[in-house]
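#struct-pred

JT: dropping the chains for the assembly here, can someone run the whole complex?
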Amino acid sequence: MKEFLERFQVSGIESPKASGNAQNDAECGDGCGGSGDCVDGCSDGC
Amino acid sequence: MINIPKVAWLTVNRTCNLRCQWCYGTSSGFSSESDMNFELAEKIVLLLKDTGVKSIVVIGGEPTLWKDLFKFNDLCNGLSIKTNLVTNAYRFCSEQFWLEYLKHPNTRIEPSLKAFDEQSSWLITKNKDFEGIRDGIQRVTGKFKIQVSLVYSTLVENRLLEMVSTAVGLGAFSVRVGVCTPMSVNGKFVAPFTVSYDKMVSEISSNYQRLVDITGGKISFTLNTPLCIWPKDFIQDVIAQNRIGNGCQFQHRSGVVFDTDGKVLLCNSMFECPVGQYGVDFSDSQSFLALLNGEKVDGIYRHINSYPSKKCIGCDLYARCHGGCPIMWTVYNADRIVRPTGKE
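RK: done, full complex below.
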């Protein structure tokens, strides 16, 4: 696990937790380009 | 506060009828022997329903090749759980399969377009039957008003307009452009198919207005990058027009991925780092939520979601991009990419 985490070259400074809808779990059409086609899942879960 | 996932991704198989070079399936050799057992899928669905998950994304491999797909869809439909099928749609070129599928449908289908003609199909997917792939997607778009997604990789670099035009020509109601992320090969993340940031910014932003025109404005982007590297007017417009989202499920801690054997992943690209397994580490919603909110998982989220660069601290765009896809920082150094000019 430690080795896996070390692959990420990040600052280690804790950032605020994301708020609102994620791009790939939105239920209200966030990021849909105004199509109104609700995006509730990205193509590969990453 | 307890994190409860809103969406779960279910990897039901690893086998596929295409061989996209950038796919995470390459790491498993597209094995046809690792399909998810239906009994396990059923147990996971019941657990997710009990947990409060309202939507399941069915992914592979290629989920239309999973022998239990119809039975699974019937189960979820009976439980009023929404499912989204992410598929290359190739199997739908068979009318017989398509008609049978319509008796056991998902709530939603999102076809993923890989190529724009026979030659590019061979180059990218090692399948020359572009006509069959096209027919499959057109069956879906002919029946449903849906979005078609595509992956922007080095294999279609400089061909983004053709890709989007092809998606529209196949009847896509809207188009989503995703950026190819690094892939894990033999325990190491590599990015041979990720377009360099400079080229990506140049091709997408310089063609933006044409992409909007081609799609009638119905285009969105999963950029996966820090937003500060993009031209300011481009970013202002895609935000104003709701053409980009707000980070990924990992950054929001709002999703969870199940691998074919019931192992839990926090991101599909992190398949080498399962955090637990159904029947071993949890077996009901209570033990499942305890796992997701435990110290170990919290530590993973906290570390990987930390600021990619100190330059991100205080940036107004950070609340929108969260520094970009964390997987990118296994390959690139954010300090060399993030631009303080992103501060507004």
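JT: nice. The two ends of chain B are 32 Å apart (CA to CA). Chain B has one domain: 7-305.
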